[in-house]
Design brief:
globular, GMP Synthetase, Chain A, domain 3, binds coenzyme A, 629 residues, single chain, five-stranded parallel sheet, binds adenosine monophosphate, alpha/beta, 18 helices
């Protein structure tokens, strides 16, 4: 057995001893009573009884252990032409003062705090400051519309919102205050305090908000509080199949143990290495791999405020790698496709020295074989696709820089990571499928530490949506297969979630926006293939009889409505008016068939279709918006 096989086998057969050992790498105030408590399935609890503080493990312990002068975080912002470096000691001071002002604002252990910030150091500092005092943070991505922010405010009920005056998207300065004001107007819950980090690119006139810099300057440094291993660390909302996002809850103990383990075994990172996840703190990748995992490991993390292209050019990834000696870059395939589109021959790369660069990790969507080969040939380092979800917090399938590294099969996320007993089940009946056959992907319980412990204030939905359909398994919502060698192929969602540029969005929430248009009788939104973003949404509208406005105007209205209600990140740019939608005899819209038509793929006539002729109308309709060929 190779190293991976040994680890995998132990993690499944004796998870308590496997993760108990991994937990020794974390500093505990008090050790756990039991490694894994399965007395209240499926609400399993890791390290129950343990006492811990995640911020202490991410910052203070490194200062105590002599890493105080090592860089903890490098903020690299081509959009503001800034590079700032923070040692562990400097970060400790800023985080403990920020925790101090939060305390001063009445934030106590268990209170919630929403962080609505762009990729600036204060975003990371806010998260750690909350963790320091046991407040539960919920970061909201800047590209969401005010309504999405309002939904999160009402669900999380924050005592305080931490925000900044603006974000910068390429050359556009996006003011946050109007969005925040609108969200607070829409929400029923009102936070007690809003703290604003003023940025020189767009200072905001404060009306009631407190100034971050003033608060921090006057604050006292605050120590870490002792928390239970199972106390919540954060809530992160992610798209479900309806308009209501799901509040994924992560606890402190299992999260710290699992993330630290992954840094060593999956990414091959040790203390002192430089690790860069080119994502955003608003997404799970940002939580796990910009903030927590690199710092828990004593590495240096990069906060990059820019894009792969256009800020200002397609050479920025390579510049950052050279300039800060990055060992591992983690990004989404779409980012690599964006670079490839601008610089297909990789000319920018010639300007930089990437000799310290060791591995490119990709996730967020499946790495298509073309992107894999392009990156591999250009960079001449391993390119590793790995599969995970907001719910899981870390990779379910990967290849391993710190265990056995397997030959890559392009299109596969390689093997199940230790801790994950991955099975392919028949969607009709739940029987396990033989190698090579497609089905839904499920994970046998118990899940390893560091995944979601529940949905915020909604245990029922946690059970119903993930744990009930296939009893004894976690239902991932993805479909795919496992080959004879145990390689996992994740082929896409089996529900109404779509993946736009590595961002997870619900077609349901877009349909809700469309349905509000007074002229729309019925609608459907579905994801179609896109060369750059992987998938983009397109809308089909059936109008009410007697509608007087032109189709063009209605389409432009609904595009604006999705932008306003869901956000620009939904990239909803195309819709078409049709007379009717193809449906089954029981009235279900045949989304899969429409999607095949739009993608120009072969499709089978569904036996349950109500009227086959509708499909010809759909073919004509998608042609009008440039699809179906
Ligand atoms: N705040 C406000 N608006 C935002 C935003 C933010 N934080 N992030 C994105 N937007 C806006 C963009 O400005 C754009 O608006 P537009 O319609 O006015 O142009 C829209 O949302 C779509 O943004 P994006 O998906 O970034 O598309 P793009 O065309 O600007 O860039 C890529 C394309 C591929 C370069 C970009 O999607 C990318 O960098 N992807 C990597 C994704 C990633 O890291 N995912 C994390 C998972 S690992
Ligand atoms: P998110 O919760 O935003 O991280 O999105 C999770 C979803 O993205 C998964 O359920 C998959 O559908 C998709 N995904 C993420 N990484 C991969 C990958 N490496 N291969 C295939 N799909 C992926």
């Amino acid at each position: 057995m190779d190293e991976y096989e040994k680890a995998f086998k132990e993690s499944i057969q004796d998870p308590k001893s496997f993760w108990g050992r991994a937990a020794e790498k974390i500093k505990w105030y008090d050790k756990w009573d039991t490694v894994l408590d399965e007395s209240n399935k499926p609400f399993n609890r890791w390290f129950k009884g343990g006492k811990i503080n995640t911020c202490y493990n991410a910052i203070d312990r490194h200062v105590e252990e002599g890493r105080g002068d090592q860089y903890a975080m490098i903020y690299d912002s081509p959009v503001t032409d800034t590079i700032e470096k923070y040692t562990y000691s400097q970060l400790k001071e800023r985080v403990s003062k920020s925790a101090g002002f939060l305390r001063g604002l009445g934030v106590e252990k268990g209170d919630t705090v929403i962080i609505y910030m762009p990729m600036i150091p204060e975003a990371l500092i806010s998260m750690l400051a909350c963790a320091r005092i046991g407040a539960v943070h919920s970061v909201v991505f800047g590209g969401f519309a005010a309504k999405e922010l309002a939904i999160r405010i009402d669900d999380a009920k924050p005592k305080v919102i931490l925000t900044a005056s603006c974000g910068i998207e390429r050359t556009k300065v996006i003011e946050y205050k109007p969005l925040l004001d609108k969200a607070i107007n829409l929400a029923e819950h009102t936070p007690e305090t809003i703290v604003m980090k003023q940025r020189p690119e767009a200072e905001t006139q404060l009306d009631g908000e407190l100034d971050w810099d003033e608060l921090e300057a006057e604050a006292e440094e605050t120590e870490c509080v002792e928390l239970d291993a199972n106390d919540p660390l954060y809530i992160l909302y992610t798209s479900g199949t309806t308009g209501k996002p799901k509040g994924v809850v992560r606890d402190n103990g299992g999260h710290a143990v699992a993330l630290r383990w992954t840094m060593e075994k999956i990414y091959g990172i040790e203390a002192g290495d430089v690790y860069w996840a080119a994502s955003d703190v608003g997404w799970v990748v940002g939580h796990s791999y910009i903030v927590y995992a690199p710092l828990l490991s004593g590495a240096t993390t990069i906060m990059y405020e820019g894009k792969p292209v256009g800020t200002p050019d397609a050479g920025q990834f390579w510049r950052v790698i050279e300039e800060h000696n990055v060992k591992v870059l983690f990004t989404a395939p779409t980012a690599i496709r964006a670079v490839k589109r601008e610089d297909p021959e990789g000319k920018y790369l010639e300007k930089y020295d990437l000799s310290k660069f060791d591995t490119l990790f990709l996730a967020g969507e499946r790495t298509d074989p073309d992107t894999y080969h392009w990156a591999k040939d250009l960079l001449k380092v391993p390119v590793i696709d790995h599969w995970w979800q907001t719910e899981t917090g870390w990779a379910i399938a990967a290849n391993f820089r710190g265990l056995t590294q397997y030959p890559i099969k392009p299109g596969s996320a390689t093997k199940a990571v230790p801790g994950w007993d991955v099975r392919i089940l028949d969607p009709f009946g739940g029987k396990e499928m033989p190698p090579g056959e497609h089905g839904v992907i499920a994970v046998k319980l118990p899940l390893p530490p560091g995944t979601f412990i529940t949905l915020w204030k909604d245990e029922e939905a946690f059970e119903k949506e993930y744990m009930t359909e296939y009893p004894g398994f976690y239902f991932t919502g993805d479909g795919g297969y496992i080959d004879e060698d145990g390689y996992i192929y994740v082929m896409g969602r089996v529900d109404d979630i779509i993946n736009i540029a590595g961002h997870r969005l619900s077609t349901g929430s877009m349909e809700e926006a469309l349905a509000k248009h007074p002229d729309v009788a019925e609608c459907a939104v579905l994801g179609v293939e896109d060369k750059l973003k992987g998938e983009v949404p397109i809308g089909f509208l059936v109008l009410k009889a007697g509608t007087e406005r032109s189709h063009e105007d209605i389409i432009s209205d609904v595009i604006g409505m999705v932008r306003n209600e869901v956000g620009p990140i939904a990239s909803f740019k195309k819709a078409v008016v049709v007379d009717r939608l193809p449906k089954t005899r029981s009235g279900k819209i045949l989304r899969g068939t429409i999607r095949h038509i739009a993608d120009g793929k072969e499709y089978r006539m569904p036996s349950t279709i109500e009227d086959p002729e509708v499909l010809d109308e759909i073919k004509e309709a998608v042609k009008k918006i440039g699809y179906g060929e």
